[in-house]
Design goal:
Two copies of one chain form a homodimer. With about 200 residues, chain A is mainly α. Helices cover about 75% and strands about 0% of the residues of chain A. Chain A is built from eleven helices and no strands. The interface of A and B includes residues 152, 162, 187 and 189 of A.
C-alpha cells in the first residue's frame, strides 16, 4: 500500500495520473470482478476524489473499458514472441508467459474474457482485437509449420487460441498436471492440429 | 405465426403451456439476444397476459434461465452420439448436428455461450454443465483414440470443445470454407491433439 499512500501526497501530471489509475485498476482486478470495480473504490485507493477521477474517465463504463484495454495490452506485451528463439521454443516461451499472466491476473483476465461475452460491444471489441493479434502471431508464421496460410488454417489458429484460453483457465482453477507438462502439451497441439490431412484436401 | 394464433385460442394444461412458452422463448432467441427477450414480448407472442406468464416463471431471471436451459438441452439432444456408427463417423455426425444447431439457433447459442460469461452464476452453471456433458462424451471414450483417460487428456478434451465452439461461431459468421471441409478438419483435430507425445510423458 506504500505506493498508494505516496500517490496521495505527490502531485502527478495528468498523463502520469491517468497511467497510475489504469495500473491501479488492473491491480484491483486481481482480487475482484469488473462489476465489483467501482469508481468509488478506485478513487479511494488512489487517494483522489471521485470528482477528479471523472476528469480522467467520463463515466464508469469508460473507466472499465480503459482498464480492460490496459489488461489486454499487458497480456499482449507479456506474451510477445521472442524473435531470438527457434519457432517451437518461441511458442512455448509465449505460452509460459501467458500462463504466468493468467495465474497472476486471474480476475483481470476473466474480466477480459467475460467482457467478450457481455452485452457491452466495446468490451467485446477489445477482446476480439486481442484474440486477432494472438491469432495473427500464429497465422503470420504458418511457414514455420510447413503450411500455407489458408482460410481453414486461420480458423483453426483462432480455435487453438480459444482452446488454450479454456485449458489454462481450467488448469489454474485446478492444476492437476505440472506446468511443464501443460506447456509441452499445449505447444505440441498447435502443429498437430495444423497438420491434419483435411487441411490439405481440396475445398 | 399460425401456431401462435392457435395458442391464443386453445386452453392448454399448465405443463403444456410451460412447454409452449419455453419453445417459444428458444424460437424467439433465434432473432434476438437474451437481453432483448422480454417477458412482455413473450406474453404477447404466446397470446397470454404478463400476469399469467409470471404464474409459470417467478421473474424475468427465472424465465431466462429456463429458456437457456432448454436451449442447452436441445443442443445436447441434437448432438447425442449415435452408437450405431464407428467412432470417427460418430464424432463427425455429432459435429454435423452441432454445426446445424449453431446455424439455425445462432442467437440462442450465443446466449448460452455468453450466459457463461455473464455475471449470472446460474447461467454460467448451465453452460458449465453443458460443456461437461460434451467433454465427457469424449473422455468416456478415450479408448477409441488408443489413450488412457488422464488429467491432461481431460483438459485437452475440454479445450477441444472450446476450440470447436470458437471455430464454428467464426465459420457461421463468415463461412470461407465448405461445411464438409470444416467437419473433416474438426473431426481430425481431436485424435491429432490427443496423440501429442507430451501426453505420454511422465508427470
Amino acid at each position: 500500500m506504500t505506493s498508494m499512500t505516496t500517490a496521495k501526497r505527490v502531485r502527478l501530471s495528468p498523463e502520469a495520473r491517468r497511467e497510475q489509475l489504469l495500473e491501479l485498476g488492473v491491480e484491483m482486478l486481481t482480487t475482484r470482478t469488473l462489476d465489483e470495480l467501482s469508481v468509488e473504490s478506485l478513487a479511494e485507493q488512489a487517494g483522489i476524489s471521485r470528482g477528479l477521477l471523472f476528469h480522467y474517465f467520463r463515466n464508469k463504463q469508460e473507466f472499465h473499458r480503459a482498464v480492460v484495454q490496459r489488461a489486454a495490452d499487458d497480456l499482449l506485451a507479456t506474451t510477445a514472441p521472442d524473435p531470438s528463439l527457434e519457432p517451437i521454443a518461441r511458442l512455448t516461451r509465449s505460452l509460459e508467459h501467458y500462463v504466468d499472466y493468467v495465474r497472476r491476473n486471474h480476475r483481470a483476465y476473466l474480466s477480459l474474457v467475460r467482457g467478450a461475452a457481455s452485452g457491452d460491444d466495446s468490451l467485446r471489441e477489445i477482446f476480439d482485437r486481442t484474440r486477432d493479434v494472438l491469432t495473427r502471431r500464429i497465422t503470420d508464421n504458418m511457414g514455420v509449420f510447413g503450411l500455407t496460410d489458408g482460410a481453414a488454417e486461420r480458423l483453426l489458429a483462432r480455435g487453438w487460441s480459444a482452446m488454450v484460453e479454456e485449458v489454462v483457465l481450467a488448469w489454474v482453477a485446478d492444476p492437476q498436471i505440472s506446468q511443464q507438462k501443460l506447456l509441452a502439451v499445449l505447444t505440441q497441439t498447435l502443429p498437430a492440429m495444423l497438420s491434419v490431412p483435411g487441411l490439405a484436401a481440396a475445398e
